[in-house]
Amino acid sequence: MVLIQVALDVVELDRALVIAKEAVAGGADWVEAGTPLIKSEGMNAVRKLKEAFPDKTILADMKTMDAGAIEVEMAAKSGAGVVAVLGRADDIVISESLLAAKKYGVQLMVDLISIDDPAARAEELVRLGVDLINIHVGIDRQMTGKSPLEVLAKLGSSCGAKIAVAGGLKPDTAKEAVLMGADIVIVGSYITNSDHVENAARAVRTAVDGVAAGSKTGTVGKKTQEEEIFEIFNRVSSSNISDAMHRKGAMSGVSTLFPGRKIVGRAVTVRTFGGDWAKPVEAIDMCGKGDVIVIYNGDRNIAMWGGLATKTAVNKKIAGLVVDGAVRDMDEMKKYDLPVFAANVVPNAGDPKGLGEINCEIKCGGQLVNPGDFIVADDSGIVVVPKEKAYEIARRSEEVWNKEKRILDEIERGQSMSSVLELLKWEKQK
Ligand SMILES: O=C([C@H](O)CO)[C@H](O)[C@H](O)COP(=O)(O)O
């Protein structure tokens, strides 16, 4: 039977115990004290998990790089049945860890996270006596689109050890991993950030067991990164994205004119001056469906956009308009289905002189915007996501969104925000 290991990558022990209970109820076999939990709570996390689940295998994800014997001993004596060390550690560390594992009657899992040639390292590890290897793509690399299935595919049919797979797995990709030979699927955030942990664990269990029962399975429908970016940005908020960008990227002094309307799209940039509306209007013709016109006007007291331009933009199915400047004809714009974000609304407009340019780097709301950058704008504000980082930021903002959903769930269950987040414990030490 394929095993499901729930990875408790949370820092609060109380939350970890609650999540573990629900995950086990949903079908998880092994319970992992994740590295963040171990760093936060030490071996107490392993002890408490073993106390709570005496019949379950507890894995301590130590990510050991040195002093393997001591770390394996520590985890084993605390109740771990499996201890995870890093495959990047020296062979002597692996050998010492294996000796300690045998001495204390526990299994050793060796994690191939960030290994350049996983197939070659797996062979070396098997020669050292390792019999459980984790094909793992870490959280940060996942944000750049890397998948453990790609690594698993390179490993070939068998490397002579049992194979665990970890790294952003969900029911469909867990199923793929089993189809590709995985013996253990390790699932963290899909389960731990779910607002219904038991159901999430059960979805993985059903997917995995379905393969064992020979259920038909197609390959995972691979969305393009662009499709994933749009799907995520349409779901998360500008606040989530700002958090994912460590509070970078948010415009100032520009806000929505029509509350409740959201923009997600790629920027067509325009630089113009003092209300000159020639380039802004010409830019409409250069937009594709779903693009966002982003304008720097340099003067917030003379309009360079109004009702006629808005109607033209709607005809072109443009996603929205963001203006570091003024617009006018609110009465007309209200009739059209175009989200508009601006710095000011005035009745006076400039002339079509043709100064400025289209699709150059501009500053809008204090933020640099380049053609093709992603713009996400909602009632909380406007964030600019550089096109070259868009996939990573989308995935990170999805993580933020998932975590907030989980915290909200606990607040809805009656806990206070400060207790859920253990604020007093994590305040900067005085
Ligand atoms: O080991 C892990 C990661 O390095 C954080 O410690 C995770 O447990 C592992 O990646 C599984 O978690 P997800 O990737 O969130 O499924």
TrEMBL record:
Transmembrane segments: none annotated. This is 3-hexulose-6-phosphate synthase. GO terms for biological process: 'de novo' pyrimidine nucleobase biosynthetic process; L-ascorbic acid catabolic process. It comes from the Archaea. GO terms for molecular function: 3-dehydro-L-gulonate-6-phosphate decarboxylase activity; hexulose-6-phosphate synthase activity; orotidine-5'-phosphate decarboxylase activity. Its EC number is 4.1.2.43. The gene is ulaD_1. It catalyses: D-ribulose 5-phosphate + formaldehyde = D-arabino-hex-3-ulose 6-phosphate. Coiled coil: none annotated.
